[in-house]
Specification:
- It is built from 17 helices and 11 strands.
- It is globular.
- It starts with about 25 loop residues before the first helix and ends in a 6-residue tail after the last helix.
- Keywords: Glycosyltransferase, NAD, Nucleotidyltransferase, Transferase.
- It comes from Rhizopogon vinicolor AM-OR11-026.
- It holds the Pfam family PARP.
């Protein structure tokens, strides 16, 4: 890639009057194009809500029955159940009314848009209806598969949208670039993408990359030597042994340019009316399989990592040599189990009621973090729990440096340490001294990831106190309140953790302060059915 080419940051482009794309643009566009009008017809025909119309649509497709027949069967199932008959079961036919009621409950915690079809007066403002439906799905995006758009049948909720368990959806997501935009993540979350690719590389290079591997994606693997394709022969990825799969993933990543160069390529200024540059056009010598592996590295992670660059976001009293990432959401199934255990296990314990959780450090070799970020911390049956240290210096001793580093990595991780949140019941741990040994993995959630660059590996060999920075005076930033006996430390200095809700509340307050009520002209009012004088 020629770095001398002119490029421009996306945010600095002049406003040409069009909407900016976001990571879910392609997914939402396919939803509107393929399903919206059909869902609208179901709503009008059967007098049901959006959630019920969606459920009816997917049931109709799966069972290969017309919606009218399904509605009749569902009504008969409800009647038979009320009469004590078991001719029909709710496992076969879900009560559409219940689905709509569940969505009404969501309005208590989400600002769902007003439903323009509630009036059911025979008049449909198609533009307003489509717009409000789009807002609704954007608000609830983490509850639906981004490829098939079906509601996810899970007992947890993620912050980051992802795909369902269907093999076809996974194939379309990774191989056909359907779903959230990889290009968007590269431009807006560059450091996160770099870290995920770097950790996948280390895991593959050190034979630690384990299931799930990117099977079923029709990957054709070229013969690569020293980062270069040497001939035209191709091998089917799915036919390789696990060891060969790992080597292929490492070799494919070796052919990729730095993530920062990808960002510059994607943000190059293009003439008005022409499409933006695409990754596959960056270098014709890079195989399609390499781009698919890049997408897999990012999209297979249902957690969302955000690099903390602003001082008010960073954990205080940790040296600047450590790159800090926050888990905006942990692995979603882990989060649900953690919250359930927190509410259940702390009942009846006064100290746990006052301090529900504690924070502690966990160090592990770099090769393990590709898996940990996706699945959380766990332990083998021969162990007696996951080990944590109250002082992070102890954990750095277990964060063995990786001997392999992706050449084009910017983060260049040589050591990784997690700062985890744990349910504060140390008397129930396998051990609470000198280390916390937690046998219940549902009691553990990684909240921060501290990453040391290769060039900074010597830092952890210095005496205690080296590199630690005093807590800066951060006006109005609230910090977590800890049990005085369980405060997290680094070099025997107390670590201060900002309240995670602080930044969100600050942004919401800023939005409210700068919001200006739009003035609707007559044409706007006609479009949105706004009464005169409002």
């Amino acid at each position: 890639s020629d770095l001398t080419e002119e490029y421009i940051d996306v945010d600095e482009e002049p406003d040409n009057g069009t909407f900016d794309k976001l990571s879910l643009s392609s997914s939402l566009e396919s939803l509107l194009d393929e399903h919206f009008l059909l869902l609208l017809r179901f709503r009008r025909q059967f007098n049901i809500g959006w959630a019920a119309a969606e459920e009816l649509n997917w049931r109709s497709r799966e069972l290969q029955k017309s919606p009218a027949i399904l509605v009749t069967e569902i009504q008969e199932a409800c009647y038979a159940t009320r009469c004590g008959s078991h001719l029909f079961t709710f496992s076969q036919f879900q009560d559409l009314c219940r689905v709509d009621q569940e969505e009404l409950l969501l309005a208590a915690s989400r600002h769902l848009p007003r439903d323009p079809l509630e009036r059911q007066d025979g008049h449909i403002n198609l533009l307003e209806t489509a717009f409000t439906y789009l807002l609704r799905r954007l608000t609830l995006c983490s509850r639906y598969c981004v490829v098939c758009h079906k509601a996810l049948d899970n007992d947890f909720e993620a912050l980051k949208p992802y795909v369902c368990n269907s093999g076809l959806c996974a194939y379309q997501y990774y191989s056909l670039n359907i779903g959230p935009s990889l290009e968007y993540d590269i431009c807006k979350n560059t450091e996160m993408v770099d870290l995920l690719v770097s950790l996948a590389y280390v895991a593959a290079a050190m034979d630690a990359l384990d299931e799930p591997l990117p099977r079923g994606l029709s990957l054709k693997i070229p013969n690569i030597v020293h980062g270069k394709i040497v001939d035209n022969s191709l091998r089917d990825f799915d036919t390789l042994s696990v060891a060969e799969m790992r080597l292929s993933i490492k070799n494919l990543i070796d052919t990729l340019p730095p993530i920062e160069e990808m960002k510059k390529h994607l943000e190059k200024k293009v003439p008005t009316g022409t499409s933006r540059p695409k990754l596959k056009d960056m270098d014709p010598d890079i195989s399609p399989a390499a781009w698919s592996i890049l997408r897999w590295c990012v999209a297979s992670c249902t957690a969302h990592l955000q690099q903390l660059t602003e001082e008010e976001d960073r954990v205080q009293n940790i040296g600047p040599e450590w790159q800090q990432f926050r888990f905006t959401v942990g692995a979603p199934d882990k989060e649900a189990k953690f919250r359930e255990a927190l509410a259940k296990e702390t009942l009846g314990y006064s100290n746990a009621k006052r301090y529900p959780t504690l924070y502690a450090f966990h160090g592990s070799p770099v090769k393990n973090w590709h898996s940990i970020i996706r699945h959380g911390l766990w332990y083998k049956s021969i162990a007696n729990g996951v080990y944590f240290a109250q002082d992070g210096m102890t954990s750095t001793g277990y964060a063995a440096a990786g001997t392999q580093v992706w050449e084009n990595s910017a983060t260049r991780p040589s050591a990784c340490v997690a700062l985890a949140e744990i349910i504060n019941l140390p008397h129930q741990f396998t051990s609470s001294a000198p280390y916390y040994v937690v046998q219940h993995t549902d009691w553990i959630m990684c909240r921060y990831l501290l990453v040391l660059k290769v060039d900074d590996q010597n830092v952890i060999m210095h005496s205690p106190g080296y590199g630690a920075t005093a807590k800066k005076e951060l006006p109005k930033v609230p910090f977590k309140v800890h049990d005085s006996l369980r405060r997290p430390l680094l070099h025997n200095v107390a670590v201060e953790i900002p309240e995670p809700s602080y930044k969100l509340e600050k942004l919401l307050a800023l939005c409210k302060e700068t919001y200006v009520t739009p003035e609707l002209d007559e044409e706007d009012k006609a479009v949105f059915n706004a009464p005169i004088g409002t």
